[in-house]
Specification:
Distance between the termini: 114 Å
Number of helices: 6
Structural class: alpha+beta
Order of helices and strands: EEHEEHHHHHEEEEEEEEEEEE
Largest sheet: 10 strands, antiparallel
């Protein structure tokens, strides 16, 4: 049987010639099949390309959201750090107030006492042992951060690390809120107690006696002249000669004079067994028996006596026993 064919006539208008092209039906079928396959492949490729474009756009959007969340996280964490530092300052302030005014705190067991010839400062913090420990249970119910399952950033979603960071941040916020509530209660109780002790508070040293920086702390140190260990009964604050020295609380001037080693010295009796001393002054502006109030100028910084340079030697004595003056500086 002869194969069926098709003849295609091609005619030119310019040359006036006609050309005949004979094509078999099998070849036409093959072209149709190949064209169909090519169309299917092209359609699939187009759909896949469009899908990739959509996925890329979605990934960009999710990445942008992830970056925004990270920025928000850093901002919240920064504010939380500020809150934590402020809370620490308030707690330290409250601790010092209770220490210098001899107020007992049941929650923190803050006690100040004198026994067997030595001044004992008992500070025992057991608050942490009373508080419920923070573990996985404490943030499983935190719907803000753990309501949705953790996501993977490699698939255009939030990372596991970010979610863990948010959970930890949530714990820190809860802990800070809890600490704030406890501190607020403590400060309110302290206010009630101090309102009944106005005279004690007025007579209690609570500010730096001069503008300067600390150069030597309270306790044993190497003597700058002998190089041997020796008890330092106060703190030293370096300042320019002539810098005013202020009374840190109300009291009566109990001594003004010159002592070997201390140079020109001033002593204030604040009552309640509290006495403060100021040494190495260049000048003194008060007299024995004179009443002074907090922030009254009593002398000027100098380098008299046994001194390696201009500074103020500041002592606080409780019933005659030296204690660390830094515990009596609330404005530090």
């Amino acid at each position: 049987m002869r194969e069926k064919t098709y003849t295609i006539l091609l005619s030119s208008n310019r040359k006036g010639t006609t050309r005949a092209v004979t094509v078999s039906s099998a070849w036409i079928k093959a072209c149709v099949v190949f064209g169909g396959i090519l169309a299917v492949v092209a359609s699939a490729a187009s759909l896949d390309y469009v899908g990739l474009l959509l996925q890329t756009t979605e990934n960009k959007r999710l990445k942008a959201e992830s970056e925004q969340l990270k920025r928000q996280f850093r901002m919240v964490e920064s504010k939380l750090v500020t809150l934590e530092k402020s809370l620490d300052r308030v707690q330290n302030f409250s601790r010092k107030l209770k220490l210098i005014t001899n107020i007992e705190d049941d929650d923190r067991s803050l006690k100040l006492s004198v026994s067997s010839g030595s001044f004992a400062q008992g500070i025992n913090f057991y608050e942490e042992s009373k508080r419920e420990p923070l573990n996985a249970k404490s943030f499983k119910s935190d719907s803000l951060f753990l309501e949705k399952a953790p996501l993977d950033i490699s698939n255009g979603e939030l990372s596991q690390e970010a979610v863990r960071g948010y959970a930890i941040l949530s714990i820190r916020i809860d802990e800070s809120v809890q600490n704030t509530e406890l501190t607020e209660q403590s400060v309110l109780q302290l206010y009630d107690q101090l309102s009944e002790r106005q005279s004690l508070l007025t007579a209690t040293p609570s500010i730096k006696p001069t503008r300067g920086w600390f150069t030597s702390q309270f306790g044993y140190r190497l003597d700058p002249f002998t190089g041997k260990p020796q008890m330092h009964n106060g703190i030293d604050m370096a300042a320019s000669p002539g810098t005013p020295v202020y009374a840190p609380a109300s009291g009566i001037i109990s001594y003004v004079g010159y002592e070997q080693g201390y140079g020109k010295i001033v002593s204030i009796d604040h009552g309640f067994g509290v006495v403060t001393r100021y040494a190495h002054n260049s000048q003194t502006f008060v007299e024995v028996g004179q009443k002074v109030k907090r922030r009254d100028v009593i002398s000027a910084v100098g380098s008299t006596g046994r001194s390696s340079g201009p500074h103020l030697h500041y002592e606080v004595r409780i019933h005659g026993l030296p204690v660390d003056p830094k515990n009596y500086i609330l404005t530090e």
